[in-house]
Structure formats: structure tokens, C-alpha cells
Backbone:
């Protein structure tokens, strides 16, 4: 069961977009470049959630927690202990994976609405610590003046364009990693579990362990996005890991098309652009964002990728069978 | 912190915790029934709370009495809830993701509309003279308004219990919670019952918001501030259980109060972590039926 993209046009279109993302940014305005950097970081986060939502088939309402763990690892280690990029990266990703390992033990006992509610509660635990554990996190004031990273390479990532390329490289790395995962026999068994848990159990798969490993991978990659986010923003605050952020990541995945990796990346890009560009023109951008939430479910329940597939009548392996 | 040792400290903290729990029961009781019956994760519930407070405020500004304001707020939001349910949610049964995103969309829209209509300033709903002031017992103060909230919550709890356990429509509701298909099979209009329960949940949330307006105030952001508390109550108590909602509310109210008083740095942790522990043992909550 190869879940390859349909041959021909889509592949070429994707190649062109990747090429543009590689060569065009130095010519962009600093505003657009900033948005693009935010977009690729959120794309990593959305792709990591897609492992849980699109491949395991569970809707998590606490994914901002991993962004937060990664971001606070950087904020605390870089400003207070002078830690370098590689240290914060390792700590951020490992800590997020460890948090996911603990959360997974609790959350994966449940499915459906119960899974939603439990992940919501677990996300709130992390938010609560960020919000109130002032001696560690500086509470609502957040941790400011996080320096731009120094990778120990001959060139600096302080300026906007090099930092964009760092973030873009992180995106490519995350995309490659997750694509290897979902195309592996392990990833295919996740899809099998999503489609029919009882069948996979009968076939002798250790269903819970598969879900658990997938959940931890999603957490770790989410933490990776958090590390980049802290370095990009130079600032970490509890607002980054609110409930509303977790729902927004869900929207990114649903808007792009769950179970497709590139769909959620596209969804993340669109939402980041929408939020920032619309707010330039009107104060009422929340109304529009709210409309996008409802419109996604009404008009594109399978996301943009799903809608495109239907529209072009290309029959690539459907990511989400049935209605 | 020598104050911890005194009985006064414990009595006043328990009182504050119980009164906050009473408010949470008003907010979460309906949410629990909605969960139990329709499995809808309703992100708009906090918005009903906020809008209920704002509508009540407007009625008072126009010269209405406090009681009238609370009732108008509750009923107006019931209509909002019925509209939302009819237009969108009834088509999304069983689709958790669709429900979360749709109700989140509504929550953002309501948040922004409230900002347009009522502005960004915080307000307090003025309470009648009979409900202001406080009783003094020795060194302790018991604000009358907090006692009023406890009384309202107790009254609503009794009414809900009587309706659910002692009336025909309550039996239909319980049947629908337990097994919607069988309920439909024996001729219960599940569609109508579901809509009524959704409206009831919205009404209670708006009532909580209006009552809370005289206590913690009405302000932008109150919707998403209170929403996690409502969810926590429902998760701890178990979805669809009135008894669970009541005990969950009291637990959350007390945990929140004592957490903030004793461990200010870990206050949310002391609220959410015990809950995670409960869920680790009983994924369906204390009184939930899977």
C-alpha cells in the first residue's frame, strides 16, 4: 500500500513550490520573510500533529504543550545558563518526547471524545506550569531576549534571511523524517490501526505500542518546532501554549488535509498568512478566522488536499476512507 | 505562613472554594449533559457564559432589575444555542474534529462580536442591595452574594435532579444519554430532546455568566479563561452524570482555591494534575458511564 502522491502535475507543482521556497526568500520584504519563517515553523508543528490526527486517527487538544516544552527549554537554558543551540535542541526535543511518553500513558487509554478531553487537560497542566511557576518561567511576563542561535558554524543566523534558511532546513528535516516514518511498515500499521483497530489486533499487532510510539514521535517533533519558535521569536510566554493554540494547530491539519503531511504544512502556511495579513487590513480578523474554522468543516471536511484530489478525480490512496 | 494553622483560614477557604464550585456547577452541569447525550465537545460553552453576562449587563443599563437581567441573559443565549445547534452541530454527530473546529469558530466569532458591541473594558454587574454586604462571624466575613450563588446552584441542582429523575421528559433524557438508538427505537424524539438539552446547557452557562458578573465581573477573555474549568469539571465527574458534575464542581472549586492559597506557584498544576491522575485510573471520570 504505497501512499504516494498521484503522478504528474501535483509532483511538479510541489517541486516548484519547494524550489521557490529555496531561492525566492532573499528577495522578499522583511515582513513577508518573517511570515514565511513563522509558517515553516508552524508547518513542522502541524505535520507532527498530523501523525496523531491523520495517521493514528485521534484528535488531540493539547499539542501546544510540546511547542511549549521545546520553547521553554530554549528560553530557560539559553537566557539563564548560556546554553548553545545544540544543547537546547537536544534538551527541547528529548524533554518534549519524555512529556509525550508520560502523557501518552494517560491519554492513549481513551479514544474519541475522551481522548480529546484528556489531552486538553494534559495540555492545561503544561500551560498552568508556564503561567504560574514564576520562579522558573517568569509567568505571564514570559522569557524575553532569547538570543538568535549560534550553531558553531562559520556563518551567523542572527539576520532574517539566514534564520529563514535555518528554519526551512528544519522543516525539510522534519518532513523527510516524518515521511520516512509514515511510509515505513510502522507508519502503514498506524494507518491500519486508524482504519480498524480490532482487525490489526487480530492480525497480531501490538496496537497500543504502535500508537504510543507514534504519539511520542509527534511530541518530539512538536518540541523541535518549539525550539525553532523560541529562537525565532526571541520570546517565550504562556500565550504560546494556550488552549486556543492547540485548536489552531488542529485547524491547520484539518484545513490542509489530515493524513497527508504536506497538507497540514500548507494549512499552517495559510493560517499564519491569513492571521497576519488580514490583521493588517482589519481589526475584525477573529471574525474571519472563526469563519475559516466553520467553512473548513462545511466546505472541505477532508481539507484542501482532499478537495483537490476529489476535484482532479485522481484516485491516490485516500487518506481518510469513507465519509 | 502562620495563617495556615488557624481554623479561620480553613473555614474561609472552604467557603470560597464551595462558592466557586457552585458557580462552576451552573456552568458545567449543562455541559456534562450535552457531552453525555451528544458527545459534543462544545468550545462555545465559555462564550455562552460571557454573552450571558454581557446581555444581563445591557438589561441593567437599560433600567431592568437584576433578576430580570439574569433571566433575559439566560433565555437570549438559549436562542443562540438553539440556532447554533440547528444550523451546524446536529449534522456533525460523531465527528469530534468537526465539532471542535466548528464550535471553536463560533467561539472566536462571538468573542469578536462581544468586543464590537461591548468594547474591551471590564464591567461588574451591580447587584441589588439585599445581596451586597456580608455576614460577620467572629473574625470571618461571608459575603451575601457568595451565599446567594451557593443557593442558586443548590436550587438548580434540585430542579435538575427532580426533572431528570421524577418526570417523563427526564426519563426520556436519561434514556437518550444511555442509548440513543434504543431511545429512538421506542419512539422518543431524540432530535427534539437533544436540542432541548443543548439549549438547557447554553441557558445554564449564560445564567452562570450573569451571576458571575456580580462577583468576578464581565470582561473580554472570560470565555476562554473559564472554559478549561468547565471541561475539567466534566472530565472529573464523568460525562452525562449530574451527580458527577456536582461533585466535580466542588472538587475543582476547592482544589483551585486551596491550590492558589497554599501553592501559588503550582496552582494550576494542583488543579489539573489530580485530574490526570483520576483519568489514569478511570478514563470515563468518577461517575461516568463509558
Residues:
Amino acid at each position: 500500500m504505497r501512499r504516494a502522491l498521484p503522478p504528474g502535475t501535483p509532483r511538479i507543482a510541489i517541486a516548484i513550490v519547494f524550489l521557490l521556497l529555496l531561492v525566492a526568500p532573499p528577495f522578499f520584504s522583511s515582513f513577508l520573510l518573517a511570515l514565511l519563517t513563522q509558517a515553516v515553523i508552524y508547518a513542522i508543528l502541524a505535520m507532527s500533529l498530523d501523525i496523531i490526527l491523520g495517521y493514528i486517527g485521534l484528535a488531540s487538544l493539547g499539542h501546544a504543550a510540546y511547542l511549549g516544552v521545546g520553547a521553554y527549554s530554549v528560553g530557560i537554558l539559553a537566557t539563564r545558563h548560556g546554553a548553545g543551540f545544540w544543547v537546547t535542541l537536544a534538551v527541547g526535543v528529548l524533554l518534549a518526547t519524555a512529556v509525550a511518553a508520560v502523557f501518552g500513558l494517560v491519554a492513549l487509554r481513551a479514544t474519541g471524545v475522551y481522548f480529546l478531553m484528556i489531552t486538553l487537560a494534559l495540555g492545561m497542566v503544561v500551560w498552568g506550569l508556564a503561567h504560574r511557576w514564576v520562579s522558573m518561567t517568569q509567568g505571564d511576563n514570559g522569557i524575553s531576549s532569547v538570543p538568535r542561535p549560534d550553531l558553531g558554524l562559520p556563518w551567523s543566523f542572527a539576520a532574517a534571511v539566514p534564520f529563514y534558511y535555518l528554519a526551512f532546513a528544519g522543516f525539510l528535516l522534519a518532513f523527510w523524517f516524518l515521511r520516512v516514518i509514515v511510509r515505513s511498515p510502522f507508519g502503514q500499521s498506524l494507518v491500519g490501526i486508524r482504519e480498524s483497530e480490532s482487525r490489526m489486533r487480530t492480525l497480531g499487532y501490538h496496537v497500543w505500542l504502535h500508537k504510543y510510539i507514534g504519539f511520542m514521535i509527534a511530541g518530539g517533533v512538536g518540541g523541535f518546532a518549539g525550539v525553532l519558535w523560541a529562537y525565532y521569536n526571541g520570546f517565550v510566554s504562556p500565550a504560546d501554549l494556550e488552549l486556543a493554540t492547540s485548536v489552531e494547530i488542529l485547524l491547520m491539519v484539518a484545513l490542509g488535509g489530515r493524513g497527508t503531511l504536506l497538507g497540514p504544512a500548507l494549512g499552517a502556511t495559510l493560517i499564519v498568512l491569513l492571521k497576519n495579513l488580514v490583521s493588517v487590513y482589519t481589526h475584525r480578523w477573529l471574525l474571519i478566522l472563526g469563519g475559516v474554522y466553520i467553512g473548513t468543516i462545511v466546505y472541505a471536511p477532508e481539507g484542501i488536499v482532499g478537495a483537490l484530489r476529489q476535484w482532479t478525480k485522481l484516485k491516490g490512496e485516500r487518506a481518510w476512507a469513507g465519509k | 505562613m502562620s495563617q495556615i494553622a488557624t481554623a479561620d483560614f480553613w473555614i474561609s477557604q472552604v467557603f470560597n472554594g464551595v462558592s466557586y464550585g457552585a458557580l462552576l456547577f451552573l456552568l458545567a452541569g449543562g455541559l456534562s449533559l450535552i457531552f453525555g447525550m451528544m458527545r459534543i465537545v462544545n468550545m462555545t460553552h465559555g462564550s455562552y457564559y460571557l454573552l450571558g453576562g454581557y446581555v444581563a449587563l445591557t438589561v441593567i443599563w437599560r433600567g431592568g432589575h437584576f433578576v430580570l437581567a439574569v433571566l433575559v441573559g439566560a433565555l437570549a443565549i438559549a436562542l443562540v444555542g438553539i440556532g447554533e445547534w440547528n444550523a451546524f452541530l446536529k449534522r456533525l454527530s460523531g465527528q469530534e474534529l468537526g465539532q471542535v473546529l466548528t464550535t471553536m469558530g463560533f467561539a472566536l466569532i462571538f468573542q469578536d462580536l462581544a468586543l464590537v458591541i461591548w468594547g474591551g473594558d471590564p464591567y461588574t454587574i451591580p447587584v441589588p442591595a439585599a445581596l451586597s454586604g456580608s455576614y460577620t462571624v467572629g473574625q470571618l466575613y461571608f459575603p451575601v452574594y457568595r451565599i446567594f450563588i451557593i443557593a442558586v446552584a443548590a436550587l438548580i441542582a434540585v430542579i435538575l435532579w427532580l426533572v431528570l429523575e421524577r418526570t417523563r421528559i427526564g426519563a426520556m433524557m436519561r434514556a437518550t444519554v444511555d442509548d440513543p438508538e434504543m431511545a429512538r427505537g421506542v419512539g422518543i424524539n431524540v432530535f427534539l430532546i437533544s436540542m432541548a438539552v443543548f439549549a438547557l446547557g447554553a441557558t445554564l452557562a449564560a445564567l452562570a455568566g450573569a451571576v458571575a458578573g456580580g462577583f468576578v465581573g464581565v470582561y473580554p477573555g472570560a470565555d476562554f479563561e473559564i472554559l478549561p474549568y468547565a471541561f475539567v469539571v466534566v472530565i472529573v465527574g464523568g460525562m452525562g452524570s449530574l451527580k458527577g458534575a456536582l461533585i466535580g464542581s466542588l472538587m475543582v472549586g476547592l482544589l483551585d482555591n486551596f491550590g492558589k492559597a497554599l501553592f501559588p506557584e503550582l496552582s494550576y498544576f494542583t488543579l489539573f494534575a489530580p485530574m490526570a491522575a483520576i483519568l489514569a485510573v478511570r478514563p470515563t471520570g468518577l461517575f461516568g458511564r463509558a
